[in-house]
């Protein structure tokens, strides 16, 4: 049976129609083959920190987990505290670290107060590029003190293998920004419910190991603290595990 369709005024035969369809199909296949491949998803690494409060009666302020470029330090022993550290050590406020950090800027916050004997886990995820130069820091305030804090500074995790674990026991540090008076109205924790951060500095103005508290039960009559608020080092157990 002859086809009666016309193209440019000429009869279109069945053979010509078949060739045209084949060429059209080839053209579509060539177009599909040349489509660019979608970008591969970035390779990621995840790290989980589990923190346990080892004290008898020192609640910890909400945990602050920092992911930073190698070379950054959340504090330096023997040197004055930064404003971010002063705010955290006196009032448990971690917001200053977001503005202070350079390079990788990531802060993961704890859910709330970490009571004595309790544990909490925090997880952060970095791209492979970020993880290649990453350090982790952890900070928290002992809230029944004037300016005591604990944590980890600049732990290099760039070479951690999958499922590898590192464990640390951390002491209490004194920010050196507020005198350890233990006076009523000077401690933000439940032992007092007093003032937190105060911009005035009236102590040695350098970070050092905390000497501990002297409570009213130890003879400091003006103190709002009791024997249960004393602490020995270490005050935290911290475990870091690479989980991805």
Task: Describe this structure as you would to a colleague.
With 244 residues, the chain is of the alpha+beta class. It is 16% helix and 28% strand. It has four helices and twelve strands. The strands form three sheets. Strands 5-4-7-8-10-11 form a six-stranded antiparallel sheet, covered by helices on one side. The protein has a four-stranded antiparallel sheet with strand order 6-3-12-9. A hairpin with a 2-residue loop joins strand 1 and strand 2.
Quick gist of this model?
The chain has 244 residues and is an alpha+beta fold. 16% of the residues lie in helices and 28% in strands. A hairpin with a 2-residue loop joins strand 1 and strand 2.
Topology:
Layout: E1 6-7, E2 10-11, H1 14-33, E3 44-53, E4 64-69, H2 83-91, H3 96-100, E5 106-109, E6 119-127, H4 128-131, E7 134-141, E8 148-156, E9 165-170, E10 172-174, E11 208-209, E12 236-242
Antiparallel strand pairs: 1-2, 3-6, 3-12, 4-5, 4-7, 7-8, 8-10, 9-12, 10-11
């Amino acid at each position: 049976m002859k086809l009666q369709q016309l193209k440019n005024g000429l009869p279109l035969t069945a053979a010509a129609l078949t060739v045209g369809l084949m060429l059209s199909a080839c053209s579509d296949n060539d177009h599909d083959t040349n489509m660019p491949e979608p970008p591969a998803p970035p390779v990621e690494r995840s790290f989980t920190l589990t923190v346990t409060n080892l004290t008898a009666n020192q609640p910890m302020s909400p945990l602050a987990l920092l992911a930073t470029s190698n070379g950054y330090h959340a504090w330096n022993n023997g040197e004055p505290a930064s404003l971010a550290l002063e705010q955290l050590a006196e009032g448990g406020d971690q917001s200053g670290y977001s503005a202070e950090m350079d390079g990788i800027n990531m802060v993961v916050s704890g859910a709330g107060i970490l009571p004595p004997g309790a544990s909490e886990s925090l997880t952060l995820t970095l791209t492979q590029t970020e993880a290649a130069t990453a350090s982790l820091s952890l900070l928290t305030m002992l809230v029944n003190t004037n300016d005591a804090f604990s944590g980890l500074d600049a732990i290099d995790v760039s070479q951690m293998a999958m499922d590898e674990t590192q464990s640390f026991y951390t002491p209490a540090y004194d920010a050196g920004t507020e005198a350890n008076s233990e006076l009523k109205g000077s401690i933000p924790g439940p032992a007092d419910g007093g003032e937190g951060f105060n911009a005035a500095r009236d102590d040695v103005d350098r970070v050092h190991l905390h000497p501990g508290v002297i409570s009213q039960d130890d003879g400091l009559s003006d103190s709002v603290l009791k024997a249960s608020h004393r602490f020995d080092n270490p005050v935290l157990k911290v475990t870091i595990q690479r989980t991805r």
